[in-house]
Amino acid sequence: MDETPFGDDSLHEECGVFGIFQRTDAAAVVTLGLHALQHRGQEAAGIVSFDGSQFHVERHSGLIGDTFTKQSVLERLPGSSAIGHTRYATSGGGGLRNVQPFFAELSAGGFAVAHNGNITNAMTVQRELQRRGSIFSSTSDTETILHLVATSAGRLFVDKLIDALSRLEGAFSLVGLSSKKMVGVRDPLGIRPLVLGEFEGSLILASETCALDIMGATFVRDIAPGELVIITEDGIESIFPFQARRPRFCIFEYVYFARPDSNVEGRNVYDIRKKIGAELARESHAEADIVVPVPDSGVPAAIGYAQEANLPFELGIIRNHYVGRTFIQPTDAIRHMGVKLKHNANRRILEGKRVVLVDDSIVRGTTSQKIVQMVREAGAAEVHMRIASPPTRASCFYGVDTPEKGKLLASRMTIEEMADYIKVDSLAFLTIDGLYRAVDEPERNRMMPQFCDACFTGDYPTSLTDQDGTDNVRQLSLLGGAG
Amino acid sequence: MDETPFGDDSLHEECGVFGIFQRTDAAAVVTLGLHALQHRGQEAAGIVSFDGSQFHVERHSGLIGDTFTKQSVLERLPGSSAIGHTRYATSGGGGLRNVQPFFAELSAGGFAVAHNGNITNAMTVQRELQRRGSIFSSTSDTETILHLVATSAGRLFVDKLIDALSRLEGAFSLVGLSSKKMVGVRDPLGIRPLVLGEFEGSLILASETCALDIMGATFVRDIAPGELVIITEDGIESIFPFQARRPRFCIFEYVYFARPDSNVEGRNVYDIRKKIGAELARESHAEADIVVPVPDSGVPAAIGYAQEANLPFELGIIRNHYVGRTFIQPTDAIRHMGVKLKHNANRRILEGKRVVLVDDSIVRGTTSQKIVQMVREAGAAEVHMRIASPPTRASCFYGVDTPEKGKLLASRMTIEEMADYIKVDSLAFLTIDGLYRAVDEPERNRMMPQFCDACFTGDYPTSLTDQDGTDNVRQLSLLGGAG
Amino acid sequence: MDETPFGDDSLHEECGVFGIFQRTDAAAVVTLGLHALQHRGQEAAGIVSFDGSQFHVERHSGLIGDTFTKQSVLERLPGSSAIGHTRYATSGGGGLRNVQPFFAELSAGGFAVAHNGNITNAMTVQRELQRRGSIFSSTSDTETILHLVATSAGRLFVDKLIDALSRLEGAFSLVGLSSKKMVGVRDPLGIRPLVLGEFEGSLILASETCALDIMGATFVRDIAPGELVIITEDGIESIFPFQARRPRFCIFEYVYFARPDSNVEGRNVYDIRKKIGAELARESHAEADIVVPVPDSGVPAAIGYAQEANLPFELGIIRNHYVGRTFIQPTDAIRHMGVKLKHNANRRILEGKRVVLVDDSIVRGTTSQKIVQMVREAGAAEVHMRIASPPTRASCFYGVDTPEKGKLLASRMTIEEMADYIKVDSLAFLTIDGLYRAVDEPERNRMMPQFCDACFTGDYPTSLTDQDGTDNVRQLSLLGGAG
Amino acid sequence: MDETPFGDDSLHEECGVFGIFQRTDAAAVVTLGLHALQHRGQEAAGIVSFDGSQFHVERHSGLIGDTFTKQSVLERLPGSSAIGHTRYATSGGGGLRNVQPFFAELSAGGFAVAHNGNITNAMTVQRELQRRGSIFSSTSDTETILHLVATSAGRLFVDKLIDALSRLEGAFSLVGLSSKKMVGVRDPLGIRPLVLGEFEGSLILASETCALDIMGATFVRDIAPGELVIITEDGIESIFPFQARRPRFCIFEYVYFARPDSNVEGRNVYDIRKKIGAELARESHAEADIVVPVPDSGVPAAIGYAQEANLPFELGIIRNHYVGRTFIQPTDAIRHMGVKLKHNANRRILEGKRVVLVDDSIVRGTTSQKIVQMVREAGAAEVHMRIASPPTRASCFYGVDTPEKGKLLASRMTIEEMADYIKVDSLAFLTIDGLYRAVDEPERNRMMPQFCDACFTGDYPTSLTDQDGTDNVRQLSLLGGAG
């Protein structure tokens, strides 16, 4: 059933993007940036470079550090401007075809685009475009953007781009590259992050600040929700082509997706996570001897919890960092052994102790079940599970790979039932207002929520056109490519 | 300079096509057919199958027998209808992207197409389509056909197809596959071959009859020039959608491209080649002791020559069949050794003999030079070169990979100069009328030539729209694919 | 200069071993065990299985989870007994040839052996064997053991094995497999660990207890220094074939090599590391605001330090776990950027703070230099470096990949010079007696040290025969193998 | 049953060898030589070079032109002396381990050896060596030679080599390379060929003269049966270390193995094959219209037959040269179609004709059956099969891959029964005396046969020690190598 360690029972950001304009070794710099964004997508990556006359593309599955750092790969990406993309999954259709950035030779010239987020009306638009004769080569919503630009009646490239963007619904932080320009856009709600940086005079667009830090680049500012920036030899121009709306940044970026050393929308992620832990300690105290994180994502909240509760912080669970994404449990017999590929409990620490166990979220609940069982078998006297976010009750349609709603434990059970299911002595989630407090808001504004928190509340800030349709099954067009 | 043995100094057919409709193991049958057509393209191949609900595609570089015969590859091609394509070259842009068949999901449903020939206005049409917003994924003229179908205003699929075909100039023998139909088309002049076969009740389309023989299928008839056949569950329908024109089949198919055991347009290729040899013996007698072919392509003409001239036929040159297409001469020192990778002269046969050396054609002349030098070094007393075709003076734009005109030896030199250049005692080409006689015509009809013989005469039977333009440089769109 | 992140400036255990006797899916179980031992060797691994009549071998470079979990690999390893080996490096000669276990068909039958440690007279013995006609296929000291068994005059297999072992000097924890037996041996000093476990009735030999935990196997006992255990269908037999000596287990296993959740020679590694941190806090107090570990290896000592010093423990440095071992800095320009591939400082945590920075050891000093610079650039007010071990002053010849002595920073500089070199406000190492106290000894017994601490003291507990010779250059024999 | 086209129903020479001493780009020259010897082994090849201080080895499966011509491969083979080996099969044990040349570092220095032939007491000697402690890494008889040299009590390298050779029985044409010398040896009977050549001052050893021709090297002389040549900087020395015996060269080399353009033991192979055809025409006349070879091996004999019988020589069967060794008939249905992967009959040539069909030999008879059926289905009125050798009745133990005796058609049937089995109108083999006449002997000398003709007569000229034993099953030692 569960192919990966503890059942791939977590949420996954689907993408990170990075671009640099006019800088020697552009593709090598993008490689560094994508490496720093690897946590936003581990399965495949792509880079498009422009060398002054031609565009070049490379797409590879695997980690950046194993693929794009090869001399031979970088030599196939010459040029002084480049954009890149790292991606969670290639499974589920099309293999490397769906790996971004996408590039097309339009009548207006070449244009490449990389995208973090999800266009919620992509399939609907695609069917329209097919009816007028467009041929699609992938199932990616990003290709839809290219076709919208290609078929726009706009006169200039920027007109066409704005025309195309105005057709899109959903979450999108885009980086684009033409022969003359690098562009960056965030959707009107600014659901996904995108920052502007500067490295020795060259401008950078990146999903997170940690991608600037890796090379010593300077953080300039966040791209604003609804902003389109156009970077040329002459500098940077800012346009707000969409109707203004109140921003709603994804609050889960703070809980889990973003890297702890990134600053996102002005806040430090590690700092927020410690505050989340402290809120949690205040909201749901437990009589306990030690605080133990589920590594690695639970660590900052556990530190915050331990400091607030004045309890010792202990690594009672050790993580094996050598688990590749492909660790298939090889035989049925092995599968039934309940092996501990990723985590091991440290009996000497846990034995006889009342343990506060801190994790970032509960998705299907299978991981929590196994972790708790492991901690109990290692001799813990009591297990008090504390979750650094509210119950995850709804699917995300904005670029996060969530199971369908019915598979989310919190959509099926009360907290008491969940505690029973994962067999803990007590279970508590952070409240939604506690979460908002941790990000320095007084509370969630029910009328005008300050963030996208749809996964906790089911309150989706955009229309979900494709979800309302009925027949979403499509065959991938197989033009070109290795199939 | 010349990377391949004797400088790749020959002409190459660019493609073979094969399709079968409604037959168990369709892809495996196509594999056999393509194997028999391997001489029409050795570098890469592709197959598209349809399994009743989905289309599947596989593209591989290398020989059919090394790629498509693998169980794992065939398992990815389920279904009872399939078409395939074998291709001369993947070099020069796009890698596997340019390997056919091409497939696209159109609004009318999926459609795959494989093509032998060359569309002489493909780039012109492509630019038009790009202006209206079509995005191309390859540099192949075949993709243009798909986009024409996709953007046609026709109502039914067949209407769209005819609409698209009517836009095409040049040579095309196409095989197409939709969810309901397999279609076959030859251009109005019928420049490239296409035959209809039948195998245990299932209809086949193939470039040559040898692809029927390999499986014991029956030859039904040639598809006629300008004919479109539509094969469905209900049988075969024949349409002539183009304005009627006098056919002009490529006469070089007889000289070199087609396999000797194929029957092409009613004539047996081996038989024609022997007749060519006999014509050559009659036209340009040489006082000699033995007739020696340049293997393998010169063999049938040499047999015909020897029988007509009543001279012994001898294998004075041995060919090493293990020369792969990739035999790079590894070092400069080696390159200058003038090594005999492909052919070796047999001194015991040649020593002291007056030799008639028979080859099919002279392209750049470099091979002939080396072969003659080798024969002389092996002790031949005299070398009389006899060429089984007229001088090749013009490029082909109908699907044959010819060097540009200026590199064709016969476009730069008289026959005497050529004899001098390749250092033979005498040199003679078959006359154009001799060639027509060998294919059972009384002579070439100057006013209405019976064949396309543009490579000998420069008389191109179609317009060459793309050649008239100036800027033919294009960047390949890089949508999807492994790059 | 430094090819890997921060210059591969750390020590590496060279091997982990694991074997199981008579258990369904033996090779799959070994795969799990090796996965848990991955920290003892990340570059390559091998497994030999015995199926009742034949031995089978697989060797692969890369992580266990990426190679040995494949169905196809495990199918080539049938049988109910298997031993495996994971290895730090394949670089430096022979590629997969040097990957263990080694197997040979001896006249007495097949025998496979896997080895953790280093035979300090292997080359000397190898030259002797070559003089009598033995042909070596690898440069591995492990092959020497096989040849010693093969050429022993002993009558029975166990006699031959004891005969061979008696010739060896150095550190060795061996696991061997013949058609009837699995054997385990530790050298007389017990320098490397080896434990006996039991899993549902089948006996296991493994380098560390974490390899038992992963599958829920039971820890039985440590194999004793100088003990040879022989496991057959009839059970386990214990022999002490060597002259008895006072054991000297490698104390660095506690500092760095072993996994924190393992219990080694009766002590829990995480627990020892926390005690080390506490000793360090007591020995060398610093006025500071926060304690920050160099992740991951410095974490337990930092927790111990923080608890003892009553300072907040903070993740001021974030580690990027996606750094593969192959992250080559792609271009010169990039190399000079001083990029932070593996670690990033979190400015919001460090800014304005007096930081105690805890790391496990200093090898060349280059990593420490860069880490400190990074922490300072992130705004730390003061940096007080605390090292959880004494200065590393001498090379290890017992299976750890240490730079030669001259490259060890502590062999060239005083502590003050080192503090200056790495630019810290203060630098302190744990004392050797502090380290002994952390492992529950009152102090180091100068006359009869309780552990091997040669890397700190230069006091080698065995002779180093090969090191005393002069000509150690050898050509690898190239019998068989893919070269 | 039969996986390859027409069932791999032919005999295979197992090896070709080539070496050059002191010449720039030695490995590149060996690559050329092996390419010319590709017909003696198509599945794998190896080269060992010596660069003045180190030996280097590369082994690859596949054709020389696809593997050893790569720049990257040749760069790993530096040095001015090199020897190489091409090999028929890697199947049946050990993969690339069994690919020669073999190299070992002996106490006397490095030594590499490549071998054409078969040592008939190799296994017996190997068991002896194992008893005294030698460990084998392959199942190849060639490794036995290395171990004999390694364990010889001889003082100098040449003494050791002669000592080792004196232990061998069977057929061996060896090329060896040490740091100072290249050596060549033929067994006392000279069963396999070996020639000495010279290329711009550098001496060459090669299996056949065609390997000299490819680079324009000069043929010096055949190495004599029983001769050992030692090539050093000072020139060439010749030793006859074996007891003198009457030579018995393999007569089948003329019939099938050697390349037609080679001169073997003073005779031209193509010339002999034509004489064989002429003898056949004289011995067994058939009333017929045309002579058709089974291509390619039957061609020279068919030319000889046609000239002698004064009948037209026609290519009535076309061979598809693109059949790789791996053309697996992909599905059961396809397998039962009786597809013509390799040969196709040309109906226009054969229809209504009385055909003399010439092939080199009949092994299992399955190919002949299919070829005849194909010729009949193409309309031949009569089929008279003429075989250019006597019936193959016994296995070869001297380096040719023959089926066991019971599977040889001629060992189970009379000629009449065979004619019936393959369904021909008449069948005739060349007589043994006819074959001797074709090689310019008056007849076979029954008392002292001039050639090894064991495959026709069962008269083996050496003892077959290994065949007399009972237990030949061995496990390959798995020291080193990728397994």
From TrEMBL, chains A, B, C, D:
<feature type="binding site">
    <location>
        <position position="455"/>
    </location>
    <ligand>
        <name>[4Fe-4S] cluster</name>
    </ligand>
</feature>
<feature type="binding site">
    <location>
        <position position="297"/>
    </location>
    <ligand>
        <name>Mg(2+)</name>
    </ligand>
</feature>
<feature type="binding site">
    <location>
        <position position="250"/>
    </location>
    <ligand>
        <name>[4Fe-4S] cluster</name>
    </ligand>
</feature>
<dbReference type="InterPro" id="IPR005854">
    <property type="entry name" value="PurF"/>
</dbReference>
<feature type="binding site">
    <location>
        <position position="452"/>
    </location>
    <ligand>
        <name>[4Fe-4S] cluster</name>
    </ligand>
</feature>
<dbReference type="GO" id="GO:0006189">
    <property type="term" value="P:'de novo' IMP biosynthetic process"/>
</dbReference>
<keyword id="KW-0328">Glycosyltransferase</keyword>
<dbReference type="GO" id="GO:0004044">
    <property type="term" value="F:amidophosphoribosyltransferase activity"/>
</dbReference>
<keyword id="KW-0479">Metal-binding</keyword>
<keyword id="KW-0460">Magnesium</keyword>
<keyword id="KW-0408">Iron</keyword>
<comment type="function">
    <text>Catalyzes the formation of phosphoribosylamine from phosphoribosylpyrophosphate (PRPP) and glutamine.</text>
</comment>
<protein>
    <recommendedName>
        <fullName>Amidophosphoribosyltransferase</fullName>
        <ecNumber>2.4.2.14</ecNumber>
    </recommendedName>
</protein>
<dbReference type="InterPro" id="IPR029057">
    <property type="entry name" value="PRTase-like"/>
</dbReference>
<comment type="pathway">
    <text>Purine metabolism; IMP biosynthesis via de novo pathway; N(1)-(5-phospho-D-ribosyl)glycinamide from 5-phospho-alpha-D-ribose 1-diphosphate: step 1/2.</text>
</comment>
<dbReference type="Pfam" id="PF00156">
    <property type="entry name" value="Pribosyltran"/>
</dbReference>
<keyword id="KW-0411">Iron-sulfur</keyword>
<keyword id="KW-0808">Transferase</keyword>
<dbReference type="InterPro" id="IPR029055">
    <property type="entry name" value="Ntn_hydrolases_N"/>
</dbReference>
<dbReference type="InterPro" id="IPR000836">
    <property type="entry name" value="PRTase_dom"/>
</dbReference>
<keyword id="KW-0004">4Fe-4S</keyword>
<keyword id="KW-0315">Glutamine amidotransferase</keyword>
<dbReference type="GO" id="GO:0000287">
    <property type="term" value="F:magnesium ion binding"/>
</dbReference>
<feature type="binding site">
    <location>
        <position position="396"/>
    </location>
    <ligand>
        <name>[4Fe-4S] cluster</name>
    </ligand>
</feature>
<feature type="binding site">
    <location>
        <position position="360"/>
    </location>
    <ligand>
        <name>Mg(2+)</name>
    </ligand>
</feature>
<dbReference type="InterPro" id="IPR035584">
    <property type="entry name" value="PurF_N"/>
</dbReference>
<feature type="active site" description="Nucleophile">
    <location>
        <position position="15"/>
    </location>
</feature>
<dbReference type="InterPro" id="IPR017932">
    <property type="entry name" value="GATase_2_dom"/>
</dbReference>
<dbReference type="GO" id="GO:0051539">
    <property type="term" value="F:4 iron, 4 sulfur cluster binding"/>
</dbReference>
<feature type="domain" description="Glutamine amidotransferase type-2">
    <location>
        <begin position="15"/>
        <end position="234"/>
    </location>
</feature>
<feature type="binding site">
    <location>
        <position position="359"/>
    </location>
    <ligand>
        <name>Mg(2+)</name>
    </ligand>
</feature>
<dbReference type="GO" id="GO:0009113">
    <property type="term" value="P:purine nucleobase biosynthetic process"/>
</dbReference>
<dbReference type="Pfam" id="PF13522">
    <property type="entry name" value="GATase_6"/>
</dbReference>
<keyword id="KW-0658">Purine biosynthesis</keyword>
<comment type="similarity">
    <text>In the C-terminal section; belongs to the purine/pyrimidine phosphoribosyltransferase family.</text>
</comment>
